[in-house]
Structure formats: structure tokens, C-alpha cells
Amino acid sequence: MKKILSLFLVLVSTVVLFTGCQDRSDLTAPAAPATGSASFARYVAIGNSLTAGYQSGSLYESAQKYSYAKLIADQAGTSFAFPNIGEPGTRGRLEVQSITPFVSYVNPNSGPLLNATYAKPYNNLGVPGALIYDFLNAYDSLSCFSAVFGGSPNPMFNIVLRNQGGAKTTQWQQTKAQQPTFVTFWLGSNDILGHAASGGVVPYTPVPTFTALFNQAMDSLKTLGCPVAVGNILDVTVAAYFTTVGGQLQQQGVTAVWGVRGTGDTIPLSLSKNLLTLTASAELAAGKGLSKANPIGNRYILDSAEIVGVKTVIAQFNNVIKTAAEARGFVHVDVAALLGKIALAYVTSGGYVVDGVKFTPVFVTGNLFSLDGVHPTSQAHALVANEFITAINAKYNASIPKINVATIPGSLVFKQQPSGSVVPNYSSDMFKHILF
Fold first, then answer.
1. CA distance 245 to 276
2. CA-to-CA distance for 132 and 395, rounded, in angstroms?
3. Distances in Å between the alpha carbon of 265 and those of 6, 262, 278, 388?
4. Contact status, residue 146 vs residue 153, Cβ threshold 8 Å
5. What is the pTM of this model?
């Protein structure tokens, strides 16, 4: 028993690998963009935290400026305004406090919205936490899905939409007001992610409801008369948020833990078939999971049946997205396939290499996920941007240059470092805590 407990609590020493510090001064600037039959004169990006550039549990400038949407705008040579949040970003940013042992720090402070008086709607209308319902219906923290149906106001709507003085404009209305010449649309992941991240406790959006709302969104965008590129939903079960804790335990020889399944029964759960969330680390540190009398709670476990359910819903959502987008002549961007390639490359060859940068789904060391285990790093955003650019180029006979991923900096922020300081990459085998 003591041996198993020590396996739960061990913090393995870390090795720092500053692999992103090479001299890249010989890299050439991208060629002048040719956008073909598409125009990026007024480009608007619609989405959730993925579009906003949210990283490590926060929205902050040094991450926002490397969102895939901003990177696309840069490559297309167009101006692109986003709600610029000063250091240290929105409250709760995860930072590196110590490397050996690895300890993360939840920054309790928040920074100001630096361009709150920007005269027009932002080009980046990605709202962290937004669901497909919110595109046509939410105009502030109290009218969004989470507030109306769950009683949890989302202040991110106030930051991004800035409706003041009685104004009630949604993501859709602010998009339309800009008379866009090009739109990217990447919404829908939160309609299933909340369910998965809560161990199946929070319900997901029913497929018929999602279908109706997504088609309404596509019909609205069609009236703009401009090109639209639509991204699909990633397989969230691949994210480090779900694979890290169980993976670490297996490396230490632990094969199963006692936990509560979605059905309510308490059984030994095989770590090769069931997923523990990052937040399950606190449960393990408290001694849970060692016996039937003291199991890990249901909300920290995505059990095998729930994994199948999540994957099934994602596949159904993605079928809706592809069908709806292509029926209206929009560009369908298969971002899910990109994540699938990375996951497969990790298993078959150790990683997915682009421009000399290796990506894997491994927490922190894989360059793919930020410290919250879900949201992409800046370099991963470059991968997403390139996926959009490739699809746009093919559809509109354009030659927008792809991004050299090696030119994008790393994303990790150290506690008490100079404002905006980041480091490229480092290796860690365990973490002390991780919170959203």
C-alpha cells in the first residue's frame, strides 16, 4: 500500500531542454501574399478560446498575438484588432514557479484591457467559453449559454463584445457590422469539451440541437456574401488534460485506481482504458484512488464508456459541420485530421516534426498544449493557421505563404519574470497542481 501511495505522490526530477534558442536569423521573410479570389481587407474571426488565443488558463497579449487568426491575418497582410489584455492577462494564468521540482503557479492578478476604446468591433471575436448557441444569442455575461442554462455568467463576453450603454450586439451582429470580406468560423468544441472535462457530469449539447444551431449560423454567414472558412472539432480525449496523470502513473507501474464510473459504481479502473483529468492530481495527492472506500470522484474520470460517447458525439458534430459548410460553398478545414496526424506520429515515430519543431500530445514537453493541457501553444497555433491557409489557398487560387513554425516563440511564462517573458521548451515528468 505504501509503495502504491508513493507512486501517486512522487515528483520526478526534471531536465531543462532549451531547444528553441537556436539562431534563426537566416530565415527569410514570407513572399508578398496573393489572396486570389478572396480578399482579407476586412477579416473577421469567430470562435471560442481557440480563436481568441487563450493559453494556460488565461487571455493575455503575448499569447493573443500568436492566435491562429492573428497569424492568418499577418500572412495575408491585413490589419487585425483583438481585445488586447495587458500582463498578466485575465485572472488565473498558469505560470512556471519551479522547474526542479516542477511547480506551477496560478497568478491571482489580472491585467487591463488595453484597447477598450477601440472604435469598431474587434476583428477577433473569439470568446473563451462560447458555445454554438452564443453566436446568435449572447451579447454579454448574463445572456450567454452558461448563464442562461447553468447560472454561471461568463465575463469574457463583456471583454470581447464590450456592449455598453444598453447595446446588445452578438458575435454575429458585430461580424455583420464590419461588412467582412473574409470570415473564419471555429465554434462547437465547447459543446462537448465541458462534458468531457467534467468526467461526463456536465451535459453536452444534443446533436439535433447542435445541428439546428450550426445550420442557423451558416445561413447567417451566407448572407454576408463573402468567403468563409469553417473549422471542425478536435478529439479532446487526445489532449494532455486527459492523458497526463494516468500516463505518469503507468510509467511508475500503477495499472489501475479505484474510481467512480459514470454509472455510479465504484470499481478498479484500468489506466489503459480510462482517462484521469489533470485535476485528478489533487485527488491522488489526498490519498484517493487506493481503495474502494476512498475512490477518485466521477468528475475526475472519463471512463471507457464515456470516452466512446465523447468520440461518437464529436464525429456526429463534425459530420454536421462538414455538411453544413460545404452545402453553402464554404471552405471546410479539417483541423481534427491535423491533431490525428500528430497523435499517430507520436505513436509510430515519436513525434510530428514541422520546420524542425517536434510536436507530441505530451504535457508541456510536446510543444502542443499549454499549461492548462487543452489550449494550443503559440507554435501549435501556427500549425492550425497553416491548415487554414492551405485550405484557403486551394479554394480561392491564392498563394498566402505558410508560417515557418520555427519562427514562433515558445509559450511558457515564468513567475516573477520580466513582463511577457517566455521560454521555448522544457521537459517535465510531473506537476504539482493544475487549475482552470
1. 6
2. 25
3. 26, 8, 22, 44
4. yes
5. 0.88
Beta bridge partners of 357: 354
- Quick check: 303 and 269 in contact, CB under 8 A? yes
**Rounded-to-integer distance, Cα 29 and Cα 355, Å:** 15
- Per the CB < 8 A criterion, the answer to whether 155 and 164 are in contact is no
- Rounded to 10 degrees, the C-alpha dihedral 394/399/400/403 comes to 90
Neighbours of 238 (CB within 10 A): 18
Residue with cell 455538411: 323
**Under 8 Å between Cβ of 330 and 227:** yes
Q: Between the CA atoms of 1, 296, 244 and 341, what dihedral angle is there, to the nearest 10 degrees? A: 130
Cα gap 262→276, rounded to integer Å: 13
Eight-state DSSP code of residue 367: B
Q: Looking at residue 369, what DSSP letter applies?
A: B
CA–CA distance, 129 with 127 (Å, rounded to integer): 6
Cβ(181)–Cβ(167) under 8 Å?
no
Question: What does the alpha-carbon distance between residue 65 and residue 84 come to, in Å, rounded to a whole number?
Answer: 9
Greatest CA span in the chain, whole angstroms?
Answer: 67
pLDDT along the chain (436 residues), means of 10: 35 29 41 82 98 98 98 98 98 91 92 96 98 98 97 97 89 98 98 97 98 98 98 97 97 97 97 97 96 97 98 98 98 98 97 98 94 98 98 97 97 71 33 27
| Residue-by-residue DSSP string for 28-66 | PPPPPP--TT---TTEEEEESHHHHT-BTTB--HHHHTT
Q: Residue 217, Cβ neighbours under 10 Å: how many? A: 22
Strand pairing category for 301-302 and 275-276: antiparallel
For residue 215 the three cell numbers come to 445550420
What pLDDT is stored for residue 5 in this prediction?
A: 35
Cis amide prior to 227 (ω within 30 degrees): no
Collapse the DSSP code of 105 into the 3-class scheme (helix H, G, I; strand E, B; otherwise coil) and give the result. strand
Closest Cα partner for 8 from 265, 199, 271?
Answer: 271
Residue 436 identity: F
In angstroms, the first-to-last Cα distance of the chain is 31
Which grid cell sits at 165? 450603454
Question: All 3 cell numbers of residue 324?
Answer: 453544413
Instruction: Give the CA count within 13 Å in the CB-facing half-sphere of 421.
Output: 8
Asked if 69 contacts 124 with a C-beta cutoff of 8 angstroms, the reply is: yes
Sole residue written with cell 469598431: 120
Report which residue type is found at 167: A
